[in-house]
Recover the amino acids of this structure.
């Protein structure tokens, strides 16, 4: 039993370290708050943790035996590690392709823009044109304004493409503008939390309480929904300079 426990501890330590390095790098680079919440990445992480930190070491605990030939034991553990690495690679790749690259103000709300939300051809074109807001593999999350083009025919084309399963306006980096350029438009869409229709009444009541607890005024037009694949959040801003004051959960 002592041999099994040692093998289990060694396997668990190695697996936990590898997973921590991968998830830590992704979290610190792209998924820090509110990215982790808005991309709903927890489901992928649960699978990674389940395979790499729970199932793998547990199987080692079961099969490890001091009486088993070392070559046979090494082969068995190698198979387990190979499955773990496959799960780790799958999870890391999924998180990489879904990493948050922008927090965009578009139309009437803020939304997270993941790498998979961007048209690859449009992204390539933006890089070739050396646009300042073009996405690169090393890009970290940036706050931008993504308005529809003023050309009505072009805007209608994008909208119709979206209706047919294409990319939203946030999928085309050539239309991105800097955060300050969208200040006037953004300010016009700030609302009192109780008026924001993205949230149901129960959520608005909870958000008001959380704003009051944080010392934030609830009677000002200072809030806007921040959306993604996870549940929406409330972004609270200073209406004067649009400084982000807080991002609050509605649950």
């Amino acid at each position: 039993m002592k041999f099994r426990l040692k093998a289990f501890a060694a396997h668990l330590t190695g697996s936990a370290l590898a997973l921590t390095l991968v998830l830590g790098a992704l979290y610190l680079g792209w998924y820090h708050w509110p990215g982790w919440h808005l991309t709903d990445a927890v489901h992928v992480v649960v699978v990674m943790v389940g395979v790499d930190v729970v199932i793998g070491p547990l199987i080692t605990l079961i099969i490890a035996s001091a009486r088993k030939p070392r070559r046979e034991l090494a082969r068995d553990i190698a198979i387990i590690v190979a499955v773990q690495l496959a799960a780790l690679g799958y999870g890391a790749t999924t998180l990489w392709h879904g990493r948050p690259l922008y927090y965009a103000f578009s139309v009437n709300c803020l939304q997270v823009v993941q790498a998979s939300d961007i048209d690859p051809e449009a992204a390539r074109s933006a890089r070739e044109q050396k646009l300042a807001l073009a996405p690169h593999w090393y890009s970290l999350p940036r706050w931008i304004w993504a308005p529809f083009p003023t050309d009505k025919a072009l805007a209608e084309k994008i909208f119709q493409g979206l209706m047919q399963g294409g990319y939203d306006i946030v999928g085309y980096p050539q239309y991105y503008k800097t955060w300050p350029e969208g200040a006037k438009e953004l300010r016009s869409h700030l609302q009192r939390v109780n008026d924001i229709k993205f949230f149901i009444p129960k959520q608005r009541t909870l958000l008001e309480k959380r704003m009051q607890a944080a010392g934030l005024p609830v009677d000002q037009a200072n809030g806007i929904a921040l959306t993604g694949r996870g549940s929406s959040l409330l972004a609270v801003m200073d209406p004067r300079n649009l400084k982000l004051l807080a991002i609050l959960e509605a649950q």
Observations:
- Residues 21 and 27 are 10 Å apart (CA to CA).
